[in-house]
Design goal:
Order of helices and strands: EEHEHEHHEHHHEHE
CATH architecture: 3-Layer(aba) Sandwich
Strand content: 5-15%
Strand order of the largest sheet: 6-5-7
Distance between the termini: 28 Å
Length: 224
């Protein structure tokens, strides 16, 4: 998102169609959703009425840590919204060694990729953003560290523990994106439960209008 100058480009608008003081232009977007790997597929799912919630087999339910004692419970709803490709993080592209990438919460991996794609969609290549770009981001509290990382940590491996802690704390999400994408500007991690993404966008708009940054990247991620 970018704040829009009051003065339209010559010939682009008539004088009475100029932008207002509070207008904000959305110049790039990206996203990953259940049943949709990009915004085009997501929009097609919406317009064609495709359902993105699917039944979960008993085997998948148990593999995901489900309680075997509840497998035949008539009140158990074995349905899920599955985001494909969360294991396809391009660690090399972002300069992460494989071992460090494995310690990184999949939510942070996914958000970092989407942030990169958003800048590309807006027409910015690596290192080509201009001015101050703020990042406003939030993530759901993840069990990835407890369920998958902590059991594999070796005693005395302080470097792995350091990477694991930084990679699984929600408060590092926004600053990670700012650092990895070379963005300078406000960098705020947002945590307001179900409204996190909306609040992130709201804060981004506020800072744009208050001229705390020239452009802003805002959003959220939630994976179980």
């Amino acid at each position: 998102m970018k704040a829009v100058d009051n003065e339209p480009a010559p010939g682009s608008r008539t004088p009475d169609e100029g932008f207002g003081d509070t207008d904000i232009a959305v110049v790039g977007m990206a996203g990953r959703f259940p049943g949709a790997r990009d915004l085009t597929a997501f929009w097609e799912n919406l317009t064609e009425g495709r359902e993105s919630v699917a039944p979960v087999s008993d085997a998948d339910y148990l593999a995901a840590g489900g309680d075997p004692a509840r497998i035949d419970d008539p009140y158990l709803v074995k349905m899920a919204s599955v985001v494909d490709g969360i294991d396809e993080f391009d660690a090399e592209h972002f300069g992460y060694p494989p071992a460090e990438a494995e310690l990184l919460d999949p939510q942070q991996r996914l958000f970092l990729e989407c942030a990169h794609h958003t800048l590309e969609h807006a027409g910015y290549g690596p290192g080509t953003t201009r001015g101050s770009v703020g990042v406003y981001a939030g993530a759901q509290q993840s069990r990835y560290f407890l369920d998958h990382v902590h059991p594999r940590l070796r005693a005395g491996d302080s470097l792995a523990l350091h990477h694991a802690q930084l990679g699984n704390v929600n408060s590092t999400l926004a600053t990670r994106v700012s650092y990895e994408l070379g963005l300078t500007g406000p960098s705020l991690s947002v945590q307001t439960a179900c409204s996190t993404s909306l609040v992130a966008v709201h804060l981004a708009c506020q800072d744009l209008l208050d001229e705390r940054c020239d452009a802003a990247l805002a959003g959220g991620v939630s994976l179980n």
